[in-house]
Amino acid sequence: MPRTSYATSVRRVRPPGRAGIANTDQGGPISTETRINDRIRVPEVRLVGPNGEQVGIVRIEDALRLAQEADLDLVEVAPQARPPVCKLMDFGKFKYESAQKARESRRNQVLTVIKEQKLRPKIDSHDYETKKRNVVRFLEHGNKVKVTIMFRGREQSRPELGFRLLQRLAEDVEELGFVESSAKQDGRNMIMVLAPHKNLKPKPKATSADADSEEPSESSTEE
After folding, report:
1. What pLDDT digit, counting tens, does each position of 123-150 carry?
2. What is the domain range of residue 38?
3. Most buried in the list 31, 38, 44, 108, measured by CB within 10 Å?
């Protein structure tokens, strides 16, 4: 097929003055589907070649003819422009590549999950180590952790106990996460949020057998 010169094989159309612009609004429902080829119902378009070269404003008949000669589609890429901007391209290939990029983008997204770990201000050493292991596991899997200190009765008059416990926990897991939201009182509870470091690569999810062996205690819940 002879090489087509898009800049010289069409008759350019001079843009009309404001009074001469035709009203192309036909009413009816607005479609968000990309218009191609014969679906483009305007008298003229601003044409872009397949390699991004600017052809200029041409009649729609000339643009469709060029698309047919090059075995390409005429695709409306900027319908809001006056006149609309259209490009010569392989529309099937364009849609396939766009779908591939969208799929790759979704695959690279990391879903952030917030776990919750509850503690008592006067927790013993054994229970503390168990809770800390849960927090470590949550952070290693790339999840945020809301740590809640639950005060009961007279414990509410000793908020410093909860603050020191949260501070201790944050220091114990600082290699894996950081304090995203500092400790603050919320009624009878004190809450702190830990988040994994951004450069931390999440561990793969454990198998069902491993998950059963590492199941958090009753005070650990998931949001």
Report:
1. 999 999 999 999 999 999 989 999 999 9
2. 18-92
3. 44
